[in-house]
Amino acid sequence: MSPQRVVLIGGAGFIGSAIANRLAEAGISVLIPTRRRSRAGQVLLLPNVEVIETDCHDESVLNELFEDADAVVNLVGILHSRSGSPYGPDFARAHVELPTRIVAACKASGVGQLIHVSALGADAAAPSEYQRSKAAGEQAVRAATPEVAWTILRPSVVFGRDDGFLNLFARLAGVLPIIPLGGASARFQPVYVEDVAEVVWHCLNDSAAARDQTFELAGPTVYTLRQLVEYVSALVGHPRPVIPLPEGLAMLQAGLMELAPRPLMSRDNVRSMRADNIATAAPLPFGLRPTAIEAVVPGWLGPAGNQRARYNPMRRHARR
Prior knowledge:
The protein is α/β, with parallel strands linked by helices. The chain has a domain at 5-158 and 191-218 and 279-290 and 312-318: NAD(P)-binding Rossmann-like Domain (Rossmann fold), CATH 3.40.50. The protein is 38% helix and 17% strand. It contains 13 helices and 13 strands. The strands form 4 sheets. The chain has a 7-stranded parallel β-sheet, sandwiched between helices. Strands 7-10 form a two-stranded parallel ribbon. The chain has a two-stranded parallel sheet with strand order 8-13. The radius of gyration is 19 Å and the shape is globular.
């Protein structure tokens, strides 16, 4: 049976917006808590979606949010943190402490299903703090057994119209004559954000098949980071030479970037790329067919893209 009310923690972000759109399309009531309601513009347009401004790290707030909820989806994730061992305090707060509080609130409020979005490469022995913290968060979610049925999703890097991945390369190609690239040979299997949303919908709609399962989410093709950068730069009409950096130089470059208020790269990101970010089995569960980058990305980055095409497709669901 489909859930009637779902709480999306982190639902105002890139992936959360796609999931909210998919659930609203199915007539599901969605509650999205966020620190700043002003940043939730895309989901505010959707029918059946309520956005409230609150602090999800407060246990009492979570208990209140989860009242009458059939399921919770946790999407909170960050890419940068102050350093620490085995992971820094910001990673600990977002990836470990928050899932632990969510599990406790699910149990206290009688929520029957929890979907937790982690990451490919999550491992307690992984080379990066990000990956190690993601593994610890997964462990906290598995502790929900038996009171709460959990599902862990492990996506590769996620792409889509408003992503911070392919769009970043497009912007860099527009301003740099060459692109010095750390981790150029690292392998990725990018997954389309709408495919991620579809998997979440299937998990909610077929909770028995998803119960206490961990699913990898990936696209149909494996690329090196260099191939992705070259593809995107050519697509936007600014083909640029890619200069692979040895890890020592990549770490130096990332260390300098860390000084920026909103760094594009960190040394921990470089360490993450020591491990390939690819699926070990079928790219998507439930027999779903993954969407290729080449099938959709030209629609917003290529010559066929235009200003009208950049309007978020969620507008049509709001009849605007």
